[in-house]
Amino acid sequence: MRLFFTLMVSPLILLADLEVSGHLDLDSQVYLSAPTSKHKNSFTAKQTLELGYSRDNLNIFTKLYAQEDYYDTLTQEEHNDRTFIRADELYLKYDFSDDSVKLGKSIEFWGALEFRNIVDAFNPDDFRVDMFNTSKLGVWNLAYSHFTENGEFSLIVKLNEPDQKMPASPYVYYFLPEGIAYEKSLESSDGTQRPSLYLKYSGTTDSEYPLDYAFIYENGYDSQRYFTTNATAISAPTEFRQKAYLVNKFMTYNTLVVDATLIKLEALYVKVDGQENVGDYSHIAFGVEHTLENFENGAALGLIAEYYRYDTYEDDKYSDLELFETMQNDIFIGARYTFNNEEDSSIVGGVVADTEYAEQTYYMQFESRFMEEFKVAFDYYYVNPSQSTLTAYKLLGKHQRVGLNVAWYF
């Protein structure tokens, strides 16, 4: 717990308008099916601390995250290398009448779908956190936004491409093959400090069937990366390293409300700039969520269906398998039940069926509050990987887990 005490007692600027919030989590998982070389459980203490200061049109915000893995307190051979402190956000924002400027480190969320947001590409994932509960790395950027009556135009310059660190191999979600080391320093086409430029326009229609939409153009490094190795013609690989490459990327995400039905679309097309291993590709996801509300006490049941399609367009370059893409031709069928009680209880789950490689992922998540300041979450995941094709889930192996998270909010 030493990391969390460090965060809590660290010096703070004493300002009258300073807002402090956060939560402390105790997270546990038991792996009922996992490779014999991996730990059969995981116990992690986590803390999120948010500090916000506002004065007139000026806003300053920071978000700190820390976690400590139980196995990192044991012998070196047992270590998961999942103990760290991370500054997710640290930015200054100034608002004008119809404009705003933001400078610093931030996390931006883009997307509309339930199971996976394929256009949520601004921030890389942190591999040291549970793969089924995405955690994003903050990136340094400069953003200008102009607000219209029904929309917002933004110009964003991402100033760097961060490394993605990996846990140690005893952790069940270290997904590289046994005996393969991971070199965390990112290889890139034009240096990791090469800026990436984003133009984004989002808005909503004032009509009988409201439409929320967003269109994004990027010139810079793609969110999708691939692995290079140190293999030669006479030696097998012993080390993997990530490679970032330049693209022109077009993205959109949209939601349309038709009575009790929500129609969702996310899509992207990528034109790759002179990369010998990765060619142009597209990713499209379409979803429908219909809500039934004729239940006692105002409860609601949402029925969800989504389809994901990933295509590459150059046969002599990496396919979805080499790029570890898991949602290349998949259908998600699920449901969300909201209890509408004082505890804000809800349960969501479903199955993802890969129609090309015959693999399935089943999951269920339950969340509820108690004593106002506490939140409990339970989840279950079962992954049945392909039996014939070396997919990303095949490398993980047949996987079954139950998890429990208890969090105190302040």
What does it look like?
- With 410 residues, this protein is mainly beta.
- The chain has a single domain (2-409), classed as Porin.
- It has two helices and 21 strands.
- It has helices at residues 2-9, 392-396, and strands at residues 18-33, 41-55, 58-69, 84-95, 99-106, 139-147, 151-158, 181-188, 196-204, 211-221, 226-229, 239-244, 246-258, 261-272, 281-292, 300-312, 329-338, 346-354, 359-370, 374-384, 399-409.
- The longest helix is centred in the N-terminal third of the chain and has 8 residues, at 2-9.
- The radius of gyration is 22 Å and the shape is globular.
- The two termini are 18 Å apart.
How would you sum up this structure in a few lines?
The chain is 3% helix and 54% strand. It is mainly beta and 410 residues long. It has a single domain, classed as Porin, CATH 2.40.160.
What features would you highlight for this structure?
single chain; about 400 residues; mainly beta; Porin; 18-stranded antiparallel β-barrel; three-stranded mixed β-sheet; 21 strands; about 5% helix; about 55% strand
